[in-house]
Each structure stands twice: as structure tokens, then as C-alpha cells.
Design brief:
The complex is a heterodimer. Chain A is α/β, with parallel strands linked by helices. Chain A is built from 8 helices and 18 strands. Chain B has a 9-stranded mixed beta sheet, sandwiched between helices. Classes of the chains: A alpha/beta, B alpha/beta.
Amino acid sequence: MNTWVYIDHFKGRALPASWEAIGLGKTLGQVTALVFGSGIQELAKAAFEYGADEVLLVDDATLADFRAEAYATSLSKLAVERTPGLILFPTTTRGRDLAGMVAIDLGTGVMVDVTSLEATGDKITVTRPIYAGKLLTRETCSSRPQIITLRGRAFPKPAQQAGRSGTLTRVAVTTGEFPTRVEGYSTTEGGVSLTDANVIVSGGRGVSNNPALSPPAGLDEKQAEIWRAQQGFALVIDLASVLGAAVGASRAAVDAGYVPYAHQVGQTGKVVSPDVYIACGISGAIQHLAGMRTSKVIVAINKDPDAPIFKLARYGVVGDLFQVVPALTAAFKQKMGK
Amino acid sequence: MKIVVCIKQVPDSTARVVVENGRVIWGDAPLIMNPWDEYALEAALQQKEALGGSVTAVTIGDESSKEALKRALAMGAEDAILISDPALVNLDTQATAQVLVAAIHKIGAVDMAFFGRQAIDGDSGLVPAQAARLLGWPALTLASVIKVEAGNVRVERGIEEGRQIVTAQLPAVFSLTKDFGEPRYPSFMGIRKATRAEIPTWSLAGLGIAAPLSVIAWPEIMNPPSREVTCQFITGSGPEEIAETLANKILAEKVL
């Protein structure tokens, strides 16, 4: 089957799920990578090194910023001309909008956020989580091309083979009147993205309950609670930085104003699937568990031995997170030679 | 400013959702307005309050979906419309977008169409961008800040790397994230108004379209494989010993 893979990137930096998509595409046959942007030669090179046989490169100044409308117009035109059987996208903010628009242009459908896939001839059957992973559904698409977005970390990332090459085809951009203008970005530097993370350390409501702390004078009750929570989250962040981990949070912690929404894991936050998930002071409400239940090794630290989080955990500590978490940070620091 | 909010009724996020005999059930958990749609409605109401105009809530569903519409009315929407037709079953996102776009056209002269970022049942998150594509309007998805000035709109959108700041002209489609700010509670007056409201129902014939074709089929819905884990509780003489044992156990998993 002729499989296309859209390489999602921000300013030339690819999201790892793009390479995972090439890896999956290779199991089905030849892979053509779609590299769109401006000044993105290096990305085309990387696509070959991750296994693409061909790259369709649309390198144009008008594509310097991602705009779904402009990208979709070029992509759809190529698909009409070259009739791929399958187009894979990573399930990212950009991938989702783009896949949705291209499906409209081509009169087909999208199977979104897929976690496994089987092919019989040119017909794909996917499995994907719904209800934040409380259930799974199998889906098929009756029209062509089949368009699929792949959940990050659901498929293995292929090894990068330095110097590997393939057919580079330069394609002109399809111009048009596009309705949006990108004015700029406010980017969060340095943080590890939750959906790409191998390791996540999360904090819940429990991080604000350290009885040993006395907040500075002059704070009202709510401010004092936030102050306590910030001290608690500092411990979570310390452990995360030793492990190179992303920082997550429960909805309760986000709703209480302890950390920004971008950190929320669960049904109305991010659905994650790291190798190690360390839950600190998280009791495990069902909507939180739905968002992290497919993590490989779950570790829970909580003072309540009956907390539901322990039902999913491989390792549990019933105890005071304010003592256990810093001790764990120190232990990893020593063992990992940091 | 003529504003439409597209909403969906879903089982509560705290519901224990399972498949039994091939059917999805959620026990006695209530059906609610999709939580992300509440942010969309809040954004719509704030635009109306700032710029004047009216908010119309629209949903596709059966008679029971009027409850979600009543919630929208109670929160402050002026009008609500139920789109209901026996042919509207098992809609994929493309078909859903076509129906909602037909409703937006029928309402007419709409300036802003708001959606939640996704529904917490199907988790697709495709309908806003697909509706925008069908309408030919800008898709300002995952918006957390919206400012309208003289027909121009400036939006901050959540992306993996932070925020993208985008400008466009109205009419436009917006999808909202939780970053926008907490939705309001229904007011007492709002609840009274919603209780008395007569909600019109539009059929496919009323919309002037044929039943849209769904190309995505879902022949099977399953419970996920159960996680057979027995928690191994780590104990010790103090935090240091516990941490030492726990760190060794985690490292022995060879996943770090």
C-alpha cells in the first residue's frame, strides 16, 4: 500500500510521533513522508533516516508558520494528484486539524488517535480509545484514502539510520487566500511534553497538605493553600528533573489553582502513556485513572491506603509524600550519578 | 454579534462506562453537557456581553438532549435548537460537521460558531476544524484567549510548544480549552426561563439536506483489557529506606 506520513514539526523540530508513524507505515509497505514548511531541508533528511522511501517536500516561505488551512490545501491537492491509499498523521494539535480538513477536502473520514492497527489487503481496521480510555472501539473507513491519526508512543519509534537516503521530490506550494495570520508565539521552553514523555511525575491535591510548613504572614486562607501547594509541587518538580520527566497534575490540583491546566492528566486533560508514572498525593478519581491507566509502571505515593490509585499501581508507598518524594529524589540522584 | 454554540450531551466524566452485551452503559450516572462545551458556551456568553447580540445553542440528538440545551439556556443562551431525525444515527465526525453547518446556514448571518475542543465520549476533536473547512471560515481551534475588535479577532491557541497567536476576520469557528476560564453556573432566573422554554426541533427536511453519509464505521466497542496488577507496597524503617527500595525496584524495571 502507498502510505503517506505527515511529518509534524514546530519550526523544523519534529514531534517524535512523526517518526513513529513512519515506522508503522514501513510495516505496510513503501512510505512517502510529507515535509511542509519553510527552510526544512534537514527535516527531509531526517525523514529518510527514519525510514521514508520518498519525501514530498513543500518548502515555501508562505508555510513558515503552521496554518491548517494553507497546509491542508497543499496536502489535499497532492493527494488528489497522487492517490495515496493511506495517510498517517501524528495525533497532535496540528495533525488533528489538518487530518480533519483534508478528509473534508477529499470526501473521506478520519480514524483519530489510534493505538493499534491491522491491514487486510488495503483495508485498515484500527483500534482506538474512547471515553478517555474507559472503552476501546474498532473502526474502519469505507472511502479512500483512509486517514488515520496515531497516538504518540503507541507505536515504536524506528532507529535513525545516519546517511540513509531516498527519492526527494520537490513540490510547489498550492497558493490561495487563507483566512488566518500568525502574529507570533509564546512558547514554554525547557519543559518536557506530557504526551511524549517516557516518565511523568504527577502531583495531586495532596501536595498542599504539608503540616510541617507555616505560610508567610499576611496570606489569606486560599493564598496560604496555594503557597503550600507550590512548596509541594517543588518536590514533584525536583523528582521530575532528576528523572528527565514531565510534570503532570490531577484535575483537583489544576482546579484548585496549584498548577496550570497544561499539566492536567485525565479525561478533560491529557491522556498519557509513559513507561513510568509516579503519582504523588493523587487519590485516583476515575477521570484521572482513565488518562494514565496505560502507563507501563505506575508508582503511587499516598497517605491513604484505600486510595483507588493503588489498584492500578505496581508499587505503592503508604506514607507522607513530603518525606518520601525528596528521599526518592535523593536516591535517584545518587543511583543515576547526578 | 450572532453567535452559535454547538454542544453535545454525554455521560458524566465521573461515570463508570462499560460495555455490556455489546451496549455502552454508564449505570445511573447523569447525562450532562459535554464539559468542554461549557467552556465554549462561557466564551460565547462573554462575547455577547462584550459586543451585544445573541447566543443560540444547537445540538444533535434525541428528545433527551433537550436537557443539555436547557442547561445552555439556564447559563444564559437566548435560544436553543434540537436537531433530531431518525436518519441521524451513528454519525461520524464528517457527517456531524455537515449537519451542524447546515444548521449554521439555516440560522443565517452567524458571526461566531463555538465548539468544545472535543466531546468526552467519542474523543475525536475533529468537528470544529471540519465544520470550519465546510463553511470556508478560519478554524481558530484550541483557543484560550479571544479578543474581537471591529470584525477582527485575535486568538491565543494552545499548541504542544506553548501558544500560537493568530488573527483572522469574522465569521470564524472557535474551539475552546479549559484554559479559557471557568464556566458560570446557571442563574436562578436562567433556570426559570429554561424550564419554561419551548425548544424547536429541526429535522433533516427542515435543514434542507439529505441524510449525510458516514464513512467511518465502528463495528465493535470493547472494554479495555483489565490491568492485572497487585500493588506491591514498599515499607521500611523510614523515608530513606523506603526511597532506596523503591528506586531500586523502579530501576530494575529497566524502563528509565
